[in-house]
Amino acid sequence: MSTPKVHKIAQEGFGAGTNELYDRIRPSYQPPALDFIRESLKGVGPFNILEIGSGTGIFTRAILADPKWNPLIKELKAKEPSAGMREVFSRTVKDERVSTSEGFFHDTGIEDEWADLIVIAQAFHWCPDYDAASAEFDRVLKPTGTLAFIWNLEDRDGAPWVAKVRDLYELYEQGTPQFRHEKWRATFDTPSYQKAFEPPREKQWTYILQGTKEGVVDRASSKSYIAVLPDTKKKEVQEEIRKIVDADSEKRWIDEPKGIFEYPYKCWVVLAHKKQV
Question: Membrane-spanning residues where (predicted)?
């Protein structure tokens, strides 16, 4: 039996009707992380960029809006298996250098040695075959190419209420390959990765977003495994999240009358360069 191209929960949880919430509530990417990726590129540009698992375009829009990144983009090809996400991407990303189409980690449809950079934002934990993906990255990247993975996640160490909210919704993961389990690290032990790439480099940042109670509820609701819950169970989880946020007396307020408080987050970037022959 062949490995499915897309996990069943991802298909359902990121299916039609879920993507507007995802696009609205998921955070963008912080300048230090974008700088770290940009500064890792070899050459002076402009660069061909392949973004796999491009979703609704959150990362794409971040680098298009970044004044240091924008002039370095020669062409960006976004590959995304979800038709619903591609539809939101097409509506929200307006740049003649950017295109979007169906594609997968192990089957991008990109020509050999086209990309200066492959970037995978908030998606690689869904990869079903790390060795096949690494072989595809090797094929598509130029000899001087860079591979970058980036994730944002609520920082459970940043506030007690964040830890409690995560403890609640993570009960419903249903065995899905979430970033926090770090199974994606097995990539770096595969034959295809070790043949083609240098050991990875990693960096982390903590940062603060502006949060509201309903924003925290929406953020949890945008997770694939919460999105697929029956409506009654989903509403139950959402109400429990509201109670956790309300009960925490240690929230750091930004604007208490407006209900705006600090929402601790963390960002991870993992980079790899092709081996120089």
Answer: none
